[in-house]
Amino acid sequence: DMIAHDGIVEVCSFSGLSRIDWGLQNFDTWTSGNSDLTVDAVLCLTKDPSSDLLYVGVSNGFEMQSYDGTQWLDLADIKFSNTAEYDETNETLWVGTKSNVGLFKVKDGTITNFTWSNSDIPSSEIFDLEVDSDGTVWMVIDDKGLVSFDGTSFTQYNSSNSDILSDNPTLISVDPSGNVWIGGFQYNALSRFDGTDWVHFQPFVSDLPNANIRQMKCDSQGDLWMATSTGLVQLEYGPTSTREELNSHIINLWPNPAGERLFLSTSDAQVRYEIYNAGGKKILDGSYDSEGIALNEIRSGQYFISLLNQKNQLIGTQGFMKQ
Q1: Are residues 135 and 151 in contact, defined by beta-carbon separation less than 8 angstroms?
Q2: pTM for this structure?
Q3: CA 11, 12, 17, 22: dihedral to nearest 10 degrees?
Q4: How many domains does the chain have?
Q5: What's the gap between Cα 149 and its chain centre?
């Protein structure tokens, strides 16, 4: 994790916690050897901007720690920290953990732990989380897909009840407009979810050069930055971006799973379609009309349909199942 604010960058690594002050040209690193940091391997980092208090999650099952610039304190009840975010609006710290420890909420000195045994969270293994502007916590959870928590109820989006491509995303980021972006090493795509509709980007049917995403983060302008196995990728999606037009292209598919025919609707009057199998091979294409798309010549399984407008520009890609 990395935090950048007012010319100061704080970053965690397996060599400790580092801070770079570009204005003063200072570089400081805290390790277990020169401070009360428990171990050098720092896995997650977040900050309360109002107090400059850092929350630091470390490896090997040790307690999460806070650091105010002078003193290190242990949060003894929170161990196996894997991801964390401070919700400034609601003055709440959220921590996702592994080793079946679950989700932690810290507010006004009270720590609440949500696990699969005491709540409706589908698993206690949390890979990544972010909080949106409404205070909803969005999580990607081990083999359980996408999960949201509004403070009262957990809602799960998986391959059985939604158009998510698979149940194993490991990364998540929420943009300023509230769109939820997910991806990861094994997810093999980048997906956007607006709370209702899904749009998927894959290398063979979009400009996404690589779906092997190791880390990603939306900036304050709404653009998404991704560290991939082949380099840094920027998806320009903010208000000044030429890709803003994607917001208006909503694709609806039915039935899903599909039988002999697949039907669709979109805001574009005339579209072409291309259908790919799970391996990325194009198996069908044509112009869409009211009679739908005949699927009687393809086998049962998972497929992806890409829609293109009259200028041959990609509108979007969605997955579907053939019965």
Answers
A1: yes
A2: 0.75
A3: -10
A4: 2
A5: 15
